[in-house]
C-alpha cells in the first residue's frame, strides 16, 4: 500500500500520482491519497516522513515559498522547521510518496518508480 501526499494543483504531483497509479495497478497495490493542503499533516507525521525520507526538515521544505521568508525560517532549527510545516502545509515539498517504510519526494515524478524496481 502506498500513500501519496498530494496537491492536485501541482503538475509534478499529478504526474507522480499518474505514474504511481499505473505501477500500483500492475502490482495490485492500493493507494491512499492525502490532499495535505485540505488535511494537514501533524508534527508526528512530519517527523515520521522525515525518518522515512532520511532527510533534514529543510530538505523537505519549499524554501522558495513566500511563507518561508515571511516566517524568517532561514537558519531555523529542525524543530522550528517541523513546526512551520505543521502550521503551514504549503511549505511541505510535494509530492511525497511512502510505502510505510521509506518515502520518496516525487521531484522528478519518475523517482516514484524506485518503489517498483527489484
Automatic annotation (TrEMBL):
Q: Give the enzyme class.
A: oxidoreductase
Q: What is this protein called?
A: Arsenate reductase
The entry's family comment says: Belongs to the ArsC family.
Gene Ontology molecular function terms on file: arsenate reductase (glutaredoxin) activity
A Pfam family annotated for this UniProt entry? ArsC
Keyword Oxidoreductase found:
yes
- What Gene3D superfamilies does the database record attribute to this sequence? Glutaredoxin
Q: What is the lineage of its organism?
A: Bacteria, Pseudomonadati, Pseudomonadota, Gammaproteobacteria, Alteromonadales
* Catalyzed reactions per annotation: [glutaredoxin]-dithiol + arsenate + glutathione + H(+) = glutathionyl-S-S-[glutaredoxin] + arsenite + H2O
InterPro entries attached to this UniProt entry = Arsenate_reductase, Arsenate_reductase-like, Thioredoxin-like_sf
Give the EC number.
Answer: 1.20.4.1
Alphabetic keyword roster: Oxidoreductase
Question: Which organism is this protein's natural source?
Answer: Colwellia psychrerythraea (strain 34H / ATCC BAA-681)
Enumerate the PROSITE patterns for this protein: ARSC
